[in-house]
Write a structure and sequence with these properties.
With 110 residues, this protein is mostly helical. The chain folds into two domains: 56 residues; 34 residues. It is 53% helix and 4% strand. The protein has four helices and two strands. The chain has a two-stranded antiparallel ribbon with strand order 1-2. Strand 1 and strand 2 form a beta hairpin. The chain is elongated, with a radius of gyration of 33 Å. InterPro entries: H-NS_C_dom (IPR027444), H-NS_C_dom_sf (IPR037150).
Amino acid sequence: MSNPLEVIIEASSIEQLKALIKSAEDAIELKKAGEIQAIREQMVQMANQVDMTPEGILAYSTRKKRSSGKAKFRNLNSPWQTWTGHGKKPGWMKQALENGADIEAFRIPE
């Protein structure tokens, strides 16, 4: 048994099919607008439950913001250059250590 929609399509002219497509596209836009409005209303209700706006919820991040860390080492020749002791050693530290310096000489007293 064939699909009734297929029967209609098969029996229709090109002009009738174009009109059908246009009607279907219009119907899709109407349905989409209705569904979007319903979703917006749900979002507002849900946001109100936590005393926020929908925009605030979308922008909210649960990830803890990490600070870069407190500097533990300072370049003796250029005091504005510091290093936390985490990650790759900066070039000035590598060069100093290669030249025989002790890393403790660069430690910032607490």
